[in-house]
Amino acid sequence: MFISNAYAAPAAASPDWTSFIPLVVIFVLFWFMLIRPQMKQAKEQRKMIEALQKGDEVTTVGGVLGKITKVGEAFVSLEIATGVEINVQKHTIQTLLPKGTIKSL
Q1: Which of 22, 70, 92, 98 lies in disulfide reach of 77, CB 3.0 to 4.6 Å?
Q2: What is the pTM of this model?
Q3: Which long-range contacts (CB under 8 A, 24 or more apart) does 39-44 make?
Q4: Rounded to an integer, what distance in angstroms lies between the CA atom of residue 62 and that of residue 78?
């Protein structure tokens, strides 16, 4: 025959635990660079939503600016213009604005 048989090289004699070191390092990097900051941001968002009160100026995820007129357990009433109120879910509130922001726009 023209083609010779191919044989596998003998396995290297390294301990099994050394093959997991790169996976552990990658997990630790993901934890400190992605997962931990995201958990911290979610905790701050929950705290901000729990502290909402009447008169706060907020923006929603959809970009609607408004002043809170009523706070319920799951919903918030926003006054987006004089005499115009909408109800939105609490978790859609993205940012708590400083007082007087809407008037300055």
Answers
A1: 70
A2: 0.70
A3: none
A4: 13
